Amino acid sequence: MWSCMLYNETDDHVDHQLCQDFGLILSVFSLIYLIICFPIGLCYNALLVVVNLSNKVSMTMPDVYFVNIAIAGLVLNAVAPIELLGPGYTRWPVWDYNNEVYITLLILFNVSSLVIMYSTTLLSLDYYIERALPRTYMSSVYNTKHVCGFIWGGAVLTSFSSLLFYVCNHVSTKIVECSKMQNKEAADAIMMFIGYVVPAVAVLYALALILRIRKEATPLDQDSSRLDPSIHQLLLASVCTQFVLWTPYYTTLLVHTLSGAPGTYPSKPRASTYYFLRRLSELLAFSSSTVTPLMYRQMNKNFSHKLQRLLRRLHCGKQGCAHEPSVVQQVVT
Hints:
This is G-protein coupled receptors family 1 profile domain-containing protein. GO terms for molecular function: G protein-coupled receptor activity. By secondary structure, this protein is mainly α. The protein is built from nine helices and no strands. It has helices at about 15-55, 60-85, 100-130, 140-160, 160-170, 185-215, 230-260, 270-300, 300-315.
């Protein structure tokens, strides 16, 4: 993930030492993530998906969105070790802008980031709809499942610009028009606008509506069919956490878009600082796949009951438990 091959023996010793210090700091953070955060995120994301899908009857609208986020988190977990311990880290320049490995990992990373951001955004909007209009079934589990399908499809289509960038790098000698599409800054600008600006505006609008409606108590607040009040805390925590962890990454995309392609920086220390912040922001983005399932596990009161039912079912086998309590089907709004 880091190397100082940019420097040679004729460069300033202070600049080279700065590059090595950045590499040491980044290496320590990367190892901490791979040893602690990576296995925890992998286990809890898989557990969140398995527990909820094995209890489909009791799933609510927020559960569907968090399952969607957990699946995207599993994709990030698959990309993280390759990125942090990949050829770029060992000074073999495969993690390059024109390489198949880079393009594949970039597409997977972009798709996951878009799914996480838009799932979080639509969760906040649907939660407001559920509180404002609890009997309209607009934010039902059935509708949410179809919405999540559109989220994945839209994320893949948005990442299509990276695929075009890859294709044109291989056929640019044959097709002159491809030279106009070899612009990674434009792809970063698209990701910045679609993947961050639009969700941020929508989330701020949804949170303003939610805070406004919470100040206006109505008889509907006593409706037993409404979501558990703890979901509100989980919603606020997850939205704030996602934007805190992903904002540095999208900020570096903005800087890259405004500054130009890598290698155009006026000084090597400045380039080293930018690359260090870029890699550190990617590490924060990877950590979102660990933080979200942990918050869901701690703040969702129904998760422990679903997990216990699943464990009892696995313990009893196919015959089923004779004294297993009947599952009360929740009325899904």
